[in-house]
Amino acid sequence: MKSILNIIIKYFGPIAIFSIMGTMIYWKNNVVLDDKSTMPVPTEFIEKKKKKKEFKKHRKEFFEYMHQTDSNTDWREIDKETRKMKTDNSRLILENMLNEGKLNRNDLARVTVSNRNLEGEWAERGSNNLAGRIRTADIDFENNLIYCASSGGNIWRGTLEGENWISLTDYQQILGITFLRKIGSRILFANNKGFYYSDNEGLILNEAEGLDISLNWESIKRTIIKAETNEIYCLVKESFNGAVTSIYKSDDLGENFFRLISFNSNSGFDQEDVSHFDIWTSRYFETDVYILNDESFYKLTNDNSIEYIGDVHSAAHSGDVILTGGMGTSVPFFYGYINGRIFQSINGGNSWADRGQSPSDWYFTINSFNSSNLNQSDIYIGGMETFRSFNGGDNWTLVNNWWDYYDNPDSKLHADIPEI
Fold first, then answer.
1. What's 256's DSSP letter?
2. What pTM was computed for the model?
3. pLDDT tens digits, residue range 325-338?
């Protein structure tokens, strides 16, 4: 080993030393990457991203200039109210058409022109192969259909073969959707500002009652649904005797919500921001609702009280909390992401192991950190690219470089991973 180092130093100098040291440090941290990961990012993509950022900056400045108002007028609030008024009016028209038996999805995308030079009936056929992003999805196995939420704010439906896609909610744009389920004939979905449902494949959307997320800083962090009861829970940052984190519950499939508990002195908690909390229940199996609050782990009991289970760690890791997991042979297993550090429990949360630092500096959305539903060793995280571990986080592998997608879109992941 010494002779090899001497030769490298003699012919390549200090630069080689730094290269070797960097490689050894990276290898020591147990992040195993393929050879392609050492390739530099293609310059054309870097230039495109720079130009895109510059374009967005100028576009934002243009919007501000276009909406100049006096200091007492909030043009964004006016815009929000106007959009809601138009959406409510559209929904009222659709409801009247439904009651009169005149509502037909095929007719919604058709426009009849008879008083201009060009006459005839026109039907919208969709985009010309434009790229887009799916934020979350659910599968209706009974009918072999996929339901997806797009970044454009619409719910889409297609076959398991990836054909016959149709936008179900064109008349109402709901951005940032993080939760989507199809339960029976009802579509359920939520973003950080509300919860919505439809009983007619998106023709008419209804917003749930009881979730008053009206202030700009109020938000829904996480929405989950219990597999066996279809009870829905939302983890909310709200104004309730000050800024507080609360859990809301719906037991009528999303029509109404009520405050179940607030994490404040009345319930024995420090009144902390929602970033210090997350909730989880299994998507497919009967489990309790579990709560991670920085270093402490809890569950909701049948009488809706909070039961302490155990400590996750004793170090100074707090904030930016994400909880995920699955069902083992007899008890659930869990993974906690706490400010970039990953922890694992394989015994129902009674004890936890520190699995080290995340291989990714950031995650794309709250759904970008997830484990297998069945295999306690499989864990994934996605930022710009996806990393996976098949041994509980001891070692991580890069799935593929983000630019590999463009040469092989059928088998490679695109940049930015909204959900795993």
1. B
2. 0.81
3. 999 889 999 999 99
Distances (CA, A) of 190 to 8, 139, 179, 221, 260: 58, 17, 5, 10, 18
CA distance 391 to 378: 6
Residue with tokens 């006096």: 70
The set of residues, in sequence order, having a beta carbon less than 8 Å from that of 162 and lying 6+ positions away, is 146
Distance, in Å, from the CA atom of 77 to the CA atom of 158, rounded to the nearest integer, reads: 35
b/e 340-360 (16+ beta carbons within 10 angstroms → b): ebbbbbbebbeebeebbebbb
How many residues comprise the chain? Answer: 420
Token pair recorded at residue 300: 């909701």
CA quadruple 242, 193, 84, 106: dihedral, nearest 10: -170
CA-CA distance, 206 to 384, in Å (whole number)?
Answer: 34
What are 398's two structure tokens? 């890069």
Between CA 157 and CA 201 the distance in angstroms is 9
Is residue 349 predicted with pLDDT exceeding 80?
yes
Burial of 36 (0-12, 13-18, 19+ CB in 10 A): exposed
d(CA 230, CA 251): 7
Q: Which amino acid is at 285?
A: F
pLDDT tens, 272-324? 899 999 999 999 999 999 999 999 999 999 888 999 999 998 788 999 999 99
